[in-house]
Design goal:
This protein has 14 helices and eleven strands. It has helices at 22-36, 52-59, 65-84, 136-149, 201-205, 253-259, 265-298, 306-326, 331-338, 342-347, 350-370, 376-389, 395-402, 404-422; strands at residues 2-10, 13-20, 88-100, 104-113, 126-127, 152-155, 166-175, 178-191, 213-219, 233-247, 424-425.
Length: 426
């Protein structure tokens, strides 16, 4: 392999010309032949025993070229990237320029490198860091959540359905007098006010009694996922079979003993107040940190390649897909449900990806200017934290998998602490 040339073709973008010699290419072809020879049935030879020259004569000289390039290219490209000395931040776009047994292979790789940025101010910044006070309403809201989690369901017989009731209904929807697909269900359980159905549907069930059959008239939203129903008025024939309500327990000492380690309501309230104060302090600290970072990246100068943002979007989309799969959903199902296509879905990550790229570049620059170098103990501590987060994956395995990225992450965290320690909390 040889790096033939390195050309700066645009801001933060280089084009590398890389040569794989005829000898290296021949070795790669020989390897592919050895691997695939058993697949070929050639007259006059037992299967898998035909000489390479015979196969090339019968199927064409280039029969093994593509696989040979794929086999030889990774090592050649990696050596070229190392020799170039470029800090490549996005997977390069590679194409084959020429290929022959006599001259070998010439590749062209367009590489996006880390842009040079300038961070003007990052010390002595000012931002608010005032935790919100804990109010009686905050404490009561948490007690109400505890009551809600411990509510019991009771059957309602003596009144009409109302908001927050759980109803069991049959329904069938019609547009222009014709039933539409997916608009029918029997024995469906619905909490009124949950917003599970299109606007107006749940409101019109309230006020009806158990055993009633009635019409619900609504209009599908303009942004509804089913194209044929967007904006269309619809009538649902509804039969109300059952009404039930959630009964909340009284907030007293007996309730507290049942649901917590405390004996009295006052003790529970004190604990809630303490935890809420700690939570508010963490939130204020996070907001303080975010405000400082926002101030830094707003004053950062540099041309950031769009490819870096797109690559970050790719990572975020892949992470989202994995989380969907863990819930038994596919991306196609999600897009259909939300009414988005692949392009509009990617756009939802654009702003966040752009900000994350800028933050990383700014912090890396501060690490460089301050000469921040994490110790081995700090790196080990970070690996141990990640080990806990990833359900006991060994810390050494995490260090091996992340490599220099783990060191960079620790350095950036130290940069953030430096920014915060020099900042002025208002």
């Amino acid at each position: 392999m040889s790096l033939v040339s390195t050309n700066n073709i645009a801001a933060s973008k280089y084009e590398l010309e890389i040569a794989i010699s005829a000898e290296e290419f021949e070795a790669a072809i020989a390897g592919v032949y050895k691997k695939r020879a058993k697949e070929f049935q050639v007259p006059g030879f037992r299967k898998g025993k035909a000489p390479r020259k015979t196969i090339e004569k019968l199927f064409g000289e280039q029969i093994f070229f593509e696989e040979a390039v794929n086999a030889a290219a990774p090592k050649a490209l990696q050596e070229a990237y190392t020799e170039s000395g470029l800090e490549i931040v996005v997977a390069p776009n590679v194409e084959v320029v020429s290929i022959s047994k006599e001259d070998g292979v010439t590749l062209k790789a367009v590489c996006v490198v880390k842009p040079e940025v300038t961070v003007k101010e990052y010390k002595g910044l000012k931002a608010s860091n005032t935790p919100a006070p804990v109010t009686d309403e905050d404490i009561q809201a948490e007690i109400d959540r505890m009551r809600s989690r411990n509510a019991r369901t009771i059957s309602v017989e003596d009144r009409a359905a109302q908001k927050d009731d759980i109803v069991v209904i049959d329904f069938e929807g019609f547009v222009d007098g014709v039933a539409f697909e997916g608009g029918k269900a029997e024995g469906y359980s619905l909490t009124l006010g949950s917003g599970q159905f299109i606007p107006g549907f749940e409101d019109q069930i309230a006020g009806h009694n158990k055993g009633e059959t009635f019409d619900v008239n609504v209009a599908f939203p303009e942004e509804y996922h089913a194209e044929e129903l967007k904006g269309k008025p619809a009538t649902f024939k509804v039969t109300l079979h059952d009404i039930s309500a959630r009964e909340l327990p009284e907030a007293d000492d007996e309730f507290v003993k049942d649901v917590s380690e405390f004996d009295t309501l006052d003790e529970l309230k004190a604990d809630i107040a303490k935890k809420k104060a700690e939570s508010n302090e963490r939130a204020a600290n996070a907001a303080f940190e975010n405000a400082l970072i926002d101030a830094i990246i707003s004053n950062m100068e540099g041309d950031i390649p769009e490819e870096m943002v797109e690559a970050r979007i790719d990572e975020m989309v892949q992470d989202f897909q994995h989380r969907l799969q863990s819930q038994g959903l596919s991306m196609d199902m999600y897009l259909q449900y939300t009414g988005m296509n692949a392009d509009s879905f990617r756009l939802t990550f654009k702003e966040q990806a752009d900000k994350q790229v800028k933050i990383a570049l700014a912090l890396e620059k501060i690490v460089e200017m301050e000469g921040i170098e994490p110790t081995e103990e700090e790196i080990d501590a970070e690996a141990a934290k990640l080990s806990e987060q990833y359900q006991g994956v060994p810390a050494e395995q995490i260090k091996a998998a992340l490599g220099d990225q783990l060191k960079s992450d620790v350095a950036q965290k130290k940069a953030v602490e430096l920014i915060k320690s020099s900042a002025v909390a208002e």
